[in-house]
Every structure is written in structure tokens, then in C-alpha cells.
Here is the input.
Amino acid sequence: GGPQALVVARFAFPEPPKMRSNHALTPPPKPHVVFALADDFGWANFGAHRAAGEQGAAEAQTPFLDGLLREGIELRRYYTYKICSPSRSALQSGRLPVHVNTANSAVSIFNESDPVSGYAGVPRNMTCVANKLAAAGYDTHFVGKWDAGMATPRHTPLGRGYSSMYGYYQHANDYWTKGEGEPSLREPQRGFEATGEVDVCLNHFTDLSEANATYFGGVRDAAALSSGCRESTAPDPPCYEEALFKRRSVGLIRAHDAARPLFLFHAFHALHTPLQVPRHYLAAAAAAA
Here is the structure.
């Protein structure tokens, strides 16, 4: 996502290699991979980078990420594109943005003279990471913010090698309503403009979908689409978008057959606009200030 993004990958091996009777090693097991991408996550948003000084400690509290750093490796010279879709298109395709997508354009963009690359996101003829891993025997799942194309089924996660998807397609949506924004006093006819323009749905599109082998469409769970938990003081209000993503990813991991390698791409909406967090986090920030 934006100026910087935080990428966390965790690798877990099902079991160590076994010895054959002739003392030759069997092929090593394929690791389970959980790839997490935090949107618009700047260098100074990482608690481990701000530990010194009261102000830094109050502004950036990331104990779980700090723990991952202690257990793993930090790449301190990782560079990414300045905006959402090119960054995500690059990660999915394994190509530099200049070779795949350099524009944060609306998902409805279409160049009639170019049926392959004339859409937003990754061009249709490109192979992506989940295509490769699925061919290698991985169970592949995508959760969270996609923003790498949705003009045709080929552009979506299922067209890119994922066996399931739960998330939203565009640059941003409302964390509570899952729409492209709620009407404001200044512009009561529409919500916020994710790309600075008005789409064909006048920015009233509800952007929360799921797809798998038997279903491809909008999320049908009324509780997930509700904003009724907005006033909750719980850390994970049940209708808050990040809580929905968290539950889906945890559920996928728990239900997974560990004998098969897993590739789970979890793409957070946070910290991308609109800036909406549960009351629990506002209270915690106020207490630390």
C-alpha cells in the first residue's frame, strides 16, 4: 500500500526430512507460508523503531510485531511503490511496478484497444505467486484487501491461483459498513472517493466479497455487513472489518490439513484510509499519551 508497507512472512515446516533405508534424505517438506501485508505502514509506525523516548513509545505500540522481529529477520532496506495497487500488483506478480502496474486507477478503467493490459491491476496474461504455489501442491487462500484488478474473473484472486477469497477488491472501503463510504455533510449524495473520482455506482458500492469452488459474489452474512457494533469497546468488535479478516484467516489455519502445504496471503486494510478504529484502540492511545 502507500509510501511504505510492512510485509511479514512466517514459514513453518510440517515435519523434518526423514531418512530412507539407504540413508538418503527424502525431499524436504514444503513449508507452510503465512504472508501478511500491512497497508500504508510507515517505518515509524513500527514499535521497535520507536522504542526510545516517551513520544515514540506512545505513538507506536506494536508488541506482536516486535515479537516477530525478535524471532525473525528484519530487512531494513526494503523498498516499495508509493501507492496501493502498484505495490500489490508487484507482490502478486513478482514484477517491478513499472512492468505490471504504475497507476492507482479506478477499477472500472478500460482501454478497448488493449484487452490484455487495458484494465486496472495485473494484466491478464501474467502468472502470479499463487498460480505457482497451487501448481506445486499448495492450498492457497487470500484474505483482506486485493486491489490488483477485478475487471474480469481472471483478474480476481480465484483467477490468480487462490482457491478461496474473503475481502474487498478496491483501494478502500468503510471499515464498518464495508461500502465505499457514507454520505457526508459536504457531499450527502455520495461517500468518500477512494481514487479521487466517482465510480459507476456513485461510490455507494458495498465492497466485501467471498469466492471459492462453489460461490463467487458478495458476502451474504448480514452481521458482517452491519455497522451495529461501531460503539463496542471490545478489542475486536464482531462487525469491524479487520476483525472479520482475522477470524477468517485464523479459521483457515485451524481447519487446514497440516499434511498439505498452506499459503495464506493476509492483506490488512489498516492503516489505509478511512481512519477508523474501534473505541478500544482510541482509549488505549489516550491512556498512553
Strands lie at 6-12, 32-38, 139-145, 164-168, 209-211, 216-218, 262-267. The CA atoms of residues 143 and 266 lie 5 Å apart. The first helix runs from residue 54 to 59. The chain has eight helices and seven strands.
